[in-house]
């Protein structure tokens, strides 16, 4: 039997030729062995090469990556040759050479790009960005309507691509926190449009098999975990209340990795539930759409932070000049300042009897889970997940207030519904010899406790350096014995502490970084990975600034060269952040 021959001038590139040769050789050997097994469904490939599709995601906590994986499965089923990657993995000149692209991105901070999309956006928004006439694209934006910059990252990318001449093949969808159904619909529409455009040769209607492995416990189906440990870490005299929690995984089958986050679905404070019922002069037993009001307010809806709709509705009926000025003035800072320390009950009280109970219920948003960086390694604690949580407590307008989830865990959370939020980009280096530099003041130390447990269990030989800090050493040095123990044992080669209020001048983690800038730069030069976790508003920005300065000073670089050095760290995933 003759092996089929591919003519030299056949219109295949090198990869396609190699694939076809392999396929034909395999086919030949099967025929020769008289096997009845059918060849792979490759007729489409022989007739026309599969159109290439690049799917890119911008993500902080993994949702966009999951949707990108689903889109890839759907597109593959329709005959596309799909490559999926994070936005940090593509340079703009490469992007300009793509034909078909789908981008799924979340928004972070205050209307900002997620970390892994930052460099892509910098290049795309630059005046030097190339024209993109050859690119056909679609953007799916994930976000949260409670933020002012709702889906801002997706909107910006979508608009800029259009400005640069790329062709939008499917309209952008802006998804709120319950993104799953809308995202699935968009994926279907996007793939259908691409099929028409590219003439892909899949089987319409084939259900796309998801390539992403998900735990059975999700936001819609959370695992009811027992909270086995709830221990105060900060000591008497501290301004803060930081607690250590341990969740029993029991027979859930949940497996996690250091760097992942745990989502907790809280229940609202019964006192606040009661006060809202009192405002409407009804009992919590009152049925609303067949369910007791107390149950709905306790577990189903956000009853602390007011939604935009609720604010608008109350404002339009209340006679409060101050409220109207704040809401309608169009100045975000004025509204934020006016709202600071006010919750839904305060707004209801300003409005008096403005709303009926039914109207009020229609203006509430679903209660959202809160994410917490896991502070244990599954290698050390396979049956438990540890969290390190700061309780949010404050007084405002003569009433004690508490953060929904942190005080639920602290005060009432003997059981809690949980699900895992994997964060693949925040991991201990796969190279056990690579140095790790971790900056995690306050609760930011959480994932680094997990990283250190992980490295200890793995017997990893790489050097470890932690910058930790808070206000006072005496009250706020959480996990002191563990950290000091690791320092003594040598697992932590370096431990630099910054307690801001223990001396006249303020000392922060970035102060310590600068003091040891030369060594820090040397660790980076040795292939070190640089991690930051904790406060996004101040700390992460100050640490980023310090890092640039250190690289500039000790590398002998200009500010632009230092930025390029730091950008390279980001591209190599050696500078990653878990900030909130
Ligand atoms: C990926 C990720 C990881 C995280 N990891 C951790 C972690 O490891 N540990 C941790 O503790 N948190 C962590 N967080 C933060 C956590 O998710 C919650 O945001 C935090 O616990 C507050 O939630 P809450 O429900 O208790 O408060 P909420 O009910 O959400 O209330 C918080 C709000 O209360 C208001 N507020 C707070 N203080 C005052 C005040 N003094 N006066 C007036 N108003 C005030 C502010 O508007 C604030 O936004 C993480 C967040 C993310 C996204
Ligand atoms: C700290 C933080 C800041 C956020 N900021 C915004 C924002 O400014 N605008 C927005 O639309 N969504 C915002 N979100 C919501 C996320 O975009 C949304 O949860 C998204 O599904 C996350 O997807 P990812 O896991 O792929 O990052 C924010 C979420 C967090 C936790």
From TrEMBL:
Residue ranges constituting the Flavodoxin-like domain according to the UniProt record: 53-191
Domain of life from the UniProt record: Bacteria
Amino-acid positions noted as binding FMN in the UniProt annotation, renumbered to this chain: 106-109, 142-151
InterPro entries listed in its UniProt record: CysJ, CysJ-like_FAD-binding, FAD-bd_FR_type, Flavdoxin-like, Flavodoxin/NO_synth, Flavoprot_Pyr_Nucl_cyt_Rdtase, Flavoprotein-like_sf, FNR_nucleotide-bd
Record CDD domains: SiR (cd06199)
Record Gene3D superfamilies: 3.40.50.360, NADPH-cytochrome p450 Reductase, Chain A, domain 3, Nucleotide-binding domain of ferredoxin-NADP reductase (FNR) module, Translation factors
Domain spans labelled FAD-binding FR-type: 220-448
BP GO annotations: cysteine biosynthetic process
Chain residues that bind FAD: 370-373, 388-390, 394, 403-406, 580
Residues in the signal sequence: none
Residues at which NADP(+) binds: 500-501, 506-510, 542
Record GO terms (molecular function): flavin adenine dinucleotide binding; FMN binding; sulfite reductase (NADPH) activity
Alphabetical list of PANTHER family matching this protein: NADPH OXIDOREDUCTASE A, NITRIC OXIDE SYNTHASE-RELATED
Name of the molecule in the record: assimilatory sulfite reductase (NADPH)
Species the sequence originates in: Mycobacteroides chelonae (Mycobacterium chelonae)
């Amino acid at each position: 039997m003759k092996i089929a021959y591919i003519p030299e001038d056949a219109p295949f590139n090198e990869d396609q030729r190699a694939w076809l040769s392999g396929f034909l050789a395999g086919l030949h050997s099967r025929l020769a062995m008289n096997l009845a097994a059918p060849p792979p469904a490759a007729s489409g490939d022989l007739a026309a090469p599969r159109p290439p599709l690049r799917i890119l995601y911008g993500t902080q906590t993994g949702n966009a990556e999951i949707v990108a994986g689903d889109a890839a499965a759907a597109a593959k089923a329709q005959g596309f040759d799909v490559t999926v990657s994070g936005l940090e993995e593509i340079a703009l000149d490469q992007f300009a050479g793509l034909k078909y692209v789908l981008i799924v991105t979340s928004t972070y901070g205050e209307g900002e790009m997620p970390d892994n999309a930052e460099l892509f956006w910098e290049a795309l928004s630059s005046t030097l960005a190339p024209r993109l006439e050859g690119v056909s694209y679609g953007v799916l934006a994930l976000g949260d309507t409670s933020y002012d910059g709702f889906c801002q990252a997706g909107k910006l990318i979508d608009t800029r691509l259009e400005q640069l001449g790329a062709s939008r093949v499917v309209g952008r969808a802006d998804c709120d926190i319950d993104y799953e159904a809308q995202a699935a619909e968009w994926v279907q529409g996007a793939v259908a449009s691409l099929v028409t455009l590219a003439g892909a040769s899949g089987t319409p209607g084939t259900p796309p098999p998801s390539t992403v492995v998900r735990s059975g416990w999700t936001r819609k189906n959370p695992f009811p975990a027992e909270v086995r440990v709830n221990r105060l870490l900060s000591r008497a005299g501290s301004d803060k209340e930081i607690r250590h929690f341990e969740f029993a995984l029991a027979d859930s089958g949940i497996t996690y990795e250091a760097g992942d986050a745990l989502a907790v679905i809280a229940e609202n404070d019964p006192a606040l539930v009661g006060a809202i019922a009192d405002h409407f002069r009804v009992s919590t037993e009152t049925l609303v759409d067949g369910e007791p009001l107390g149950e709905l307010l306790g577990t189903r809806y956000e009853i602390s932070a007011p939604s935009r709709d609720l604010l608008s509705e109350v404002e339009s009926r209340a006679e409060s000049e101050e409220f109207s000025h704040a809401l309608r003035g169009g100045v975000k800072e004025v509204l934020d300042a006016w709202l600071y320390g006010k919750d839904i009950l305060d707004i209801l009280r300003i409005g008096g009897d403005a709303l009926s109970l039914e109207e009020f219920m229609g203006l509430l948003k679903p209660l959202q889970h809160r994410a917490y960086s896991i502070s244990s390694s599954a290698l050390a604690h396979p049956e438990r997940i540890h969290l390190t949580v700061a309780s949010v407590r404050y007084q405002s307008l003569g009433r004690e207030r508490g953060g929904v989830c942190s005080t639920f865990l602290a005060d009432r959370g003997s059981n809690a519904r949980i699900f895992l939020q994997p964060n693949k980009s925040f991991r201990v280096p796969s190279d056990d010899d690579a140095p790790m530099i971790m900056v995690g003041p306050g609760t930011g130390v959480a994932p680094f406790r997990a990283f250190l447990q992980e490295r200890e269990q793995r017997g990893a030989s790489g050097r470890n350096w932690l910058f930790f800090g808070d206000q006072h050493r005496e009250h706020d040095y959480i996990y002191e014995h563990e950290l000091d123990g690791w320092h003594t044992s040598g697992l932590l080669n370096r431990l630099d502490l910054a307690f801001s209020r223990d001396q006249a001048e303020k000392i922060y983690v970035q102060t310590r970084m600068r003091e040891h800038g030369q060594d820090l730069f040397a660790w980076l030069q040795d292939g070190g990975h640089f991690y930051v976790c904790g406060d996004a508003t101040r700390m992460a920005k100050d640490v980023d600034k310090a890092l640039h300065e250190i690289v500039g000073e000790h590398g002998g670089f200009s500010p632009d060269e230092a930025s390029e050095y730091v950008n390279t760290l980001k591209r190599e995933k050696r500078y990653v952040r878990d900030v909130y």
